[in-house]
Amino acid sequence: MSLDKMLQKLSVRSPWLFRINAGSCNGCDVELATTACIPRYDVERFGCKYCGSPRHTDVVLITGPLTTKMRDSVLRVWHEIPNPKVTVAVGICPISGGVFRGSYSIEGPIDRYIPVDVNVPGCPPRPQAILEGIVLARSIWLKKLGLEE
Q1: Is the pTM of this model over 0.90?
Q2: Which domains does the chain have, with CATH numbers?
Q3: Most buried one in 79, 87, 102, 120, CB count within 10 A?
Q4: How many angstroms separate the CA atoms of 140 and 59, rounded?
Q5: Membrane-spanning residues where (predicted)?
């Protein structure tokens, strides 16, 4: 391994997470809060940290079906996130529209507008499933950086 590659690998920071609510019922958001607040499911033990700004994030967690009213805001925020970014659809709503699928106010699955790297199904998904999705997203992020684990 070259010295440059080794220094790049050593200097990589932990990925930062940002949550976007695209119109959810907040069930998935409560489970995401579990991964931030309860030690048993603490996401920081995997080297990830929640941040408050999309401009500083590496992994975006999207909850809820994409509603007509939220579409432009969600897309604007998603485009503010610097590359390389990894998108995680948390819950069945961003994956397929969930129970709201077919409604007049639902734009459909999030992957119509945004490329999704990881799907975490469930209504709401269990904290363990969310953690697995975040760990997978972290490894995808490292691959996009060229620093495979």
Answers
A1: no
A2: 15-145 (3.40.50.12280)
A3: 120
A4: 10
A5: none
